[in-house]
Amino acid sequence: MSSSSAGATTSRPVSSSITTFLECGVPDVLAVHLSKAGISTPFPIQSATLPDSLSGRDVLGRGRTGSGKTLAFSLPLVARLASEGRRTERGAPRGLVLVPTRELANQVLSVVSPLAQAMDLRATVIFGGVGQGPQVKALQSGTDIVIATPGRLEDLIKQGHCRLDAVSVTVLDEADHMADLGFLPAVTRILRLTPAGGQRLLFSATLDGGINVLVRKFLSDPVTHSVDPVEAPVSTMVHHVMTVDHADKSAVVHDLAGGMGRAVLFTRTKHGAKKLAKQLTTAGIPAVELHGNLGQTARERNLSAFSDGAVRVLVATDIAARGIHVDDVALVVHVDPPAEHKAYLHRSGRTARAGAEGVVVTVATREQSAEVKALAKKAGIHPTYASIAPGSAEVARLRGERAPHVTPSAAVASDRVQRTATPRQGAGPNRGARRRPGRSRSGSQVR
To answer: Which of 72, 326, 338, 406 is deepest in the core (most CB within 10 A)?
Structure first.
């Protein structure tokens, strides 16, 4: 599968006649597993790509965030390895999934692992920020599928703990984000270590720029399936731009974050995310942060608290725009407008997933108005613009019912963060009243 064998890609229309996973060619055991998990009808990206990927073709799959790409590549990956009937050697996985972030690695594992177990296969994650001992041990035990970020995987290969000459299927997930983060040289080196005859599946929101270089070098006669226009906004997502005076921004953001539904607030900097999360918590709106300065344990703890409903607000930098897959996020707030339109679409994609409705609000100071209008045009969206002051009825409408105030814990209360509200008596730090009645305590399986 060298550059000489990679030709022009073949595009195929999405078939509307496929309504079940069995019709896609998914093995009975996996189809039954999906049915038991409540997944019976394939999403468009799945019904489009599965017939080709399950038949062994190299596939390029393009779909917006939340469209179901994870399951689209997990099923053929597991099905092919199970059908080979050979044993995985120590340190030589047969399936490889490359992802850009640790959060995404864990999310992919949550989908791949149950499918693998159903076929008597094992999967593990490999990424930096944690000790490599358990990862080395998993490799030496003969794990079948490795889900990895490029940096740590290369480290383990150089140390002799892992080799890729037995890989039958290689998947590149969020390939465009890996390109944005500068991972393409590492991805190229890794792909060169996999057998030329192996199957390659590349999934991404966009298929341009550096992605085309990978396609020409490493995919053989690939079939392209695109279920969305390249820059398509989600039809169930409603966009708003709130123009505020600089002095009023904090109060408006706090008001937006104080509703009963789950909300993700994006800042441009790590310091900004940390500061805002503390300010919200001190103001009686429990929030957790997610950014690159956190260790892996803290990242996982905070994301778990958000996904299981212990807190309703997550304050994050762009690292989370690709790594968070939590159901029922009602609101995304761009506290700081992103630097470019692709980041806007990826951030916004934390809501309105899998056909659900969602609201996206950009809070812009008057000095940022022109910048935000240009961003919206490039992103292909048509937001509602409004000039907003604290206490606005429009903020209350988008926020929904206000959640009860929660008295911060002693540790947070003693922090040097300016309080913006006076705690009421009788509220505990984990009052269940902040959870919407009937709402699931955990995010569902990524599809």
So the answer is: 72
pLDDT tens digit string along 346-363?
888 788 665 567 899 999
The per-residue pLDDT for 108 is 94
**pTM to 2 decimal places:** 0.66
Residue 398 pLDDT more than 50? yes
Phi and psi (nearest 5°) for 223? -100, 130
CB crowding 382-394: b at 16 or more within 10 Å, else e: ebebeebeeebee
Q: Which of 122, 123, 104, 11 is nearest to 59 (CA)?
A: 11
Note whether 383 and 376 are within 8 A (CB): yes
Architecture of the 237-433 domain: 3-Layer(aba) Sandwich (3.40)
Give the integer Cα–Cα distance in Å for 128 and 149: 8
Domain 3-226 and domain 237-433, same fold? Reply is: yes
Topology classification of domain 3-226: Rossmann fold (3.40.50)
Percent of the chain at pLDDT > 70 equals 82
How many CB atoms within 10 Å of residue 335? 22
What angle is formed at CA 180 by the lines to CA 109 and CA 324, rounded to 5 degrees? Answer: 35
Handedness of CA 114, 116, 120, 126 (dihedral sign): negative
- Residue 224's DSSP bridge partners are 11, 60
Domain boundaries, the chain: 3-226, 237-433
Q: Per-residue pLDDT for 373 more than 50?
A: yes
Give the helix ranges, DSSP H, for 245-356: 249-257, 270-282, 296-307, 341-348
* DSSP result, 373-429: HHHHHHHT--PEEEE--TT-HHHHHHH-SBPPP-PPPHHHHTSS----SPPPTT--T
Identify the bridge partners of residue 241 per DSSP, sorted by sequence position.
362, 385
Q: Let me know how many helices (H) and strands (E) the chain has, helices first.
A: 17, 15
Cα 294 to chain centroid, rounded = 18
**How many Å apart are CA 341 and CA 334, to the nearest integer?**
12
Range in 213-222, 312-321, 404-413 with the lowest mean pLDDT: 404-413
